[in-house]
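Structure (tokenized):
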């Protein structure tokens, strides 16, 4: 998640800054790295087959997913494709620093949908964290246009602002949907839900989202425009294709880390981790792109950090309370299958 959250937006913003203009292509890049997941899946299958050969009579299945989980992952993949398009559209017209802080509002949406879908329990600290992050985004909204990049019209900036908020809201739905799918998989099968199964889910999500974006590219004639865009790219043709490959690999790290955070923790935890990584992206955007960092962004960033500290402190206190109450279930914040 650190690699993807910090590096992904920088790669994508560099694409737009140096002459790239294809929204559907940039959306596709965010999930096109899904074939990389075949490597750990093949290793896992090889290990399962060796264990079967040592004594188990049945053959090891190549995929562990049930049809129901496959359908759920495909549906999440379609929503992911739409979310990628909204995010790419916003990043085309917004500085990375502004886009990153706006994306942090996904925590508020994640909290709301987690409450509805997986019965997430909240403390005063988690509610305070959501409120602080929402306040930071509202401050950016009141200052909208003050950091508008050169060559971007007010209408484009406003559209980018709205699209980025829409991407945050949709991703706030996706995280609890992932957690709910994993919980239902636990309830619907006697086999353990392992991280290998989670990687398979991400493979299906990435494949479906990539197909969604590829159809959009075909409708928008992006495939025919890529060679010409590569020739005119500021960093040269080789730099163009290296940038595309780097974007795909980096974003795949992000999605794999995110679904892992949901698996080992919860959807709300994944949202909090995404938020706390904002300062890394902020600093890198200022260093590499020389983006402005005004007082409003500074206050919004401070509110984001304050919100994370509040959430983390609340989790520590909750963990201590559960430690002193051994008769209570230890997984109270997860959906009980």
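Design, position by position:
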């Amino acid at each position: 998640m650190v690699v993807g959250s910090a590096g992904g937006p920088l790669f994508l913003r560099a694409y737009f800054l140096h002459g790239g203009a294809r929204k559907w292509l940039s959306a596709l890049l965010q999930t096109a790295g899904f074939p990389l997941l075949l490597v750990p899946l093949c290793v896992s299958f090889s290990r399962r087959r060796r264990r079967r050969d040592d004594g188990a009579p049945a053959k090891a299945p190549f995929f562990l997913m049930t049809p129901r989980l496959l359908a759920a992952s495909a549906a999440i993949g379609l929503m992911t494709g739409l979310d990628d398009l909204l995010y790419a559209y916003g990043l085309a017209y917004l500085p990375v620093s502004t886009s990153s802080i706006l994306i942090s509002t996904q925590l508020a949406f994640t909290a709301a949908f987690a409450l509805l879908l997986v019965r997430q329990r909240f403390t005063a600290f988690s509610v305070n964290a959501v409120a602080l992050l929402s306040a930071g985004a509202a401050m950016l909204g009141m200052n909208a246009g003050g950091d508008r990049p050169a060559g971007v019209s007010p209408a484009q900036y406003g559209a980018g602002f709205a699209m980025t908020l829409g991407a945050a809201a949709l991703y706030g739905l996706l995280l609890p949907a992932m957690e709910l799918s994993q919980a239902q998989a636990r309830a619907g099968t006697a086999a353990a839900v392992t991280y290998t199964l989670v990687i398979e889910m991400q493979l299906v999500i990435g494949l479906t989202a990539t197909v969604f974006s590829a159809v959009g590219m075909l409708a928008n004639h992006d495939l025919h425009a890529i060679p010409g865009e590569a020739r005119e790219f500021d960093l040269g043709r080789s730099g163009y294709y290296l940038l595309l490959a780097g974007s795909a690999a980096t974003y795949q790290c992000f999605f794999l880390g995110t679904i892992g955070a949901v698996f080992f923790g919860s959807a709300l935890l994944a949202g909090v981790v995404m938020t706390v990584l904002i300062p890394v992206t902020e600093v890198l955007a200022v260093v590499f792109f020389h983006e402005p960092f005004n007082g409003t962004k500074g206050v919004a960033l401070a509110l984001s950090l304050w919100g994370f500290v509040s959430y983390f402190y609340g989790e520590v206190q909750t963990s201590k309370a559960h430690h002193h109450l051994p008769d209570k279930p230890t997984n109270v914040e997860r959906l009980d299958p």
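Reviewer-requested clarification: The CA atoms of residues 124 and 314 lie 8 Å apart. The first helix runs from residue 2 to 17.
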